[in-house]
Each structure stands twice: as structure tokens, then as C-alpha cells.
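Let us work through a complete example step by step.
Step 1: write down the sequence.
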Amino acid sequence: MSSEYTHLKDGSEGSFFQRNKTVIFIVVGAIVLLLIAAVVIALIVGLAVGLHKDDDDEYIDLSSRIQVSNIMNHLQNLQNIAGEHNQTRAAVTAGYNASVEYVYQKLRSAGYNPVLHTFQITSTVMTATPALIMNTPKTITYRYGSDFYVASGASSGQVNQAKIYQVPNFGCLEEDYVNFPNGYVAVISRSPPDDILNSSLDACTILQKANLSLTRGAVGVIVYNDGLLPSRLPAFQAGLGGVISIPVFTTSFLVGDHIACYNAEVSMSLATTTYTVDTNNIIAETSDGDKNNVVVIGAHLDSVPAGPGINDDGSGSATVLEIALQVAENGWQHFAAPNALRFCWWSGEELGLLGSTAYVRALQRNDSYETIGDITQIAAYLNFDMIGSPNFVRGVLNGSSSQNAIEGCTRIQHMFEDDLEKSIGANTYEPAAFGPPYRSDYGPFVTAGIPGGGLFTGAEVIKTEEQRSRYGGLAGVAFDPCYHLACDTVDNIDKGVLEQFSKTAARVMQRLSTMGDIREHLNSNATTTEDTDWAHFSAKQTRMNVY
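Step 2: predict the structure and record it as C-alpha cells.
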């Protein structure tokens, strides 16, 4: 290298570089300038794509970000919370408050500004073991916890050898009580789900039955299971969603039928104390999106007192939380969604849909507009309650069957069904009871005229042989054998169906949020789900390899 350098410096005419150095410098300079220009152009184009997001390939499929392992981690943390608080996360308990803190802090860490929507729960708690006795024609003492339960919200009372009156139909109309004698105990059938209800009869809540009985002079109420399915034979637990001044017991079909057939005299004993306590819903909303065209996605965070409530409804709560966290991590503007999302976790569902009811009423009153908005902003509500049942069915809330159905409920139902057909296959789902009476938190929204829908993998109903052939599992066993029991733990979750339903939840939510005017689409005269905007998003999904 040293001798070559000397040779060049000396100006040897034998050097190629020396003879052509001017041309070489020009060529190299031109190449460098072209490279710089290419980089600048690439940056400009990239910036334009990033700002406008008009290229479908830039959009993110939210469901691809949902990992069931993350949802299971949330469920384990909720179970740990229950384990630290007497094995429960029931509303107004320390376990529920710790669950609120867990969700709240996760949202804060992700960049949300969550709001605690505080409301009051007034209910009753037993101070002694209740008693139910049939006195005539023979004496039978029924067992609390197996033959009968006390409806939460029922008040103290001592009924001694009172005559009973069997209320006709389901005791939902004033005319059912025209012959009710003052001072009797009302014996009434539980209202069955709307999918097995004779459409000529009305259905209603236990509180409605009890109030109608009370206005006619009843001194107590016995609501017995309807017995229309094997799963609706045992005694059942229920919350009134309010307080009533007389004892209200819920019994098995056999106990109620026995008392009614004998036209018996009965004694009822109940000692309770009434309490009023503050509790909290959690509300979090995306900073991006149209605030007057909001999709609300919710689940109840409370359990029953008997257990940690990991399927009911930790499965829904954890899914909603994970969807919210993934939206924050990836940026809602990257999901092709012009509309805002609002995530909600409800308190007091197990006491009678108290949290969602209080929230909707607050919206209707326009309370605290700056923090929770108003009712006119909400275009649709999606509910996820029990979506990991171990002996599952894939249920889609059957909005088209509701006696109070609004068009949007049917369209949301079809969106879920359409997604399940594409992602899993035909004949892989079935309609789930919608109501009224409503069994979960979509009820108050639908009652307020907001289209609602959701997913459900089953509770106490017994799986049939036909359902076993479609979904697997065990025929003759409840969809969730640990429903409302202490064994509702992380071991009670089917991770496969939880993953399927969490991804379907994310896709349908994203699909709804891409509609320019959700109300127009949900209430349009279109006869199929493949109208212009829905087909447009379906094309986006295909390019994103959603299914």
C-alpha cells in the first residue's frame, strides 16, 4: 500500500484512478445524492401513511393482540384477591373493593383516566338462620340452603301458620292478584327464560312479583323454580335489586309445588338488618374517537358471596380489561375506528343488576356529565358475562326473541353469529336467552332503548345430548357445575372457548366502532349484515388475516 501511494503522488500515467478521478468523483456524488433523495421520499411517504392511515394494510386487527394467557393472568389475580378476602369478591365486600383497585390501577398504568362511578346499595343481611315450615296437612321443616334460599333484599318477618294463595300464570300482572286474600302468603312460579317461555304469558322479576303481592296484602312470598328444565328444578338464589318489607323465599320446584298442591298453611321466619353502603362501577374511555357515537363494552366485577366468581364473571371482566389494555398499547387510531370506546365494570350485578342500572339512570339524569357522559352518546352496548364455562355452549344473546326487542339488538346478534361462522364454522353456536327478565347488565341499556347484545357460555342449565355432539363435554351436566359456588375458580375455566369468545368480542367491537353512524346501521332497513360499511370492514379483516 505504501509504494502504490507514492506512485500516485508522483503522477504516474499508468494509474487508472489518476487518469479518471474527475469522472469517478462525479459518479459517486450522483449516487450519494440519489440515495439521500430516496430516503427523504420514503420518510415523507411514511409520514403521510402514518397520518392518514388510508392504506388498509396499515390497520391492526385487535383480536390478534388478544392473548388468552394474559386473560388467565388477570383471572389468577382476581382469585388471589378473593383468597385474601374470605374467598369472595361480592359487592360491598373488601374483596370487591380490592378487585376495583386492581382494574383501576391496570387502566391508569395503561394511560387511561378511569372514573369511579359511586352509587349506593341498600339491601339486607340475615342475622339468624331463616325457617320455612309447612304446617298442614302435615308438618315438614324445609332446609335452608338446599330446599330454599332467601332473596337478598327481603326484610324481617314472622309468619305463623298463614294460608297460601297460588298466584296464576307467573304473577306478573295486576289481574293475576284480583282474588288475592289479605294476610295470605303468595306462592308464585319463577318466570322462565324467554327462549322457553310461552309468548302469551308475561315474564317479570322477583321484585315485581313481590311488590304486586305486597300491594294486595301478602305477608310473605314464596317463588318456586318453574321446573321446565332439569336445571330449573333445584332451589335457586336471587337478588331483588331493592328492599321489600316482607320475607321473600326462593324454593325448589318440588317444595313450591308441594305447598301449592296441598293448599297448605306455612310459617316463615326471617331476621335481617338493612344496610346502605357506597360501591363503585369503573368507567374508562378512549381519548380518540367520536364521543357522540360510543360503543360501550361491559362486564360485572362482583361475585356471589359463596365464591371467587372466576367464570361468573371474572371471565368477562378480565376479557374487557385485556381488550382495553391492548387498545391502549397499540393506539385506538390504528384500529380503523372513528368511534370512541367506553369500558365498564359493574358492581352489584348479583344483587339485581344494581351497578348498570344506577349508571344508566345517572346518564338519563345527566349526572356528572363531564365524567360519565349522557345517554345520547351511547350507540350500542356489548355485554360479556360467563364466557369460559367448563361444559360450555357457544351462546349468542338472542336479541331477536325479546318481547321488548329493538332492531339494533337483532343486528348485533347477527354480527356475533357472522363472526363465529367465519372464525369457527357453521353450526358452532346457538341463541342464548335474552329476556325480559334480563339476567345480566345489558338489561338496563336495552330498557333505555340502546341496542345491546353479547356472548354467554352457560350457567346452571343442563347440557343435552345434541349439545354434547356439537360442543363436546358431558350431557346431563350443567354448563357450569360451579355456578355460584366456591369451586368457581381458575380451574373452572375452559381456556379454549374463552380464547374464541375473547377474540370474537374484540372483532365485533372493532367492527361496530368502524361504522360512521352506528345508530343508522343498527336501525337501517338492510336485510343482511353485508351492507356497505360492514362489507368494507369485512374486506379489511380478510386482508388482516383475522380468521
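Step 3: interpret the result. Residues 1-19, 42-57, 526-547 have pLDDT under 50 and may be disordered.
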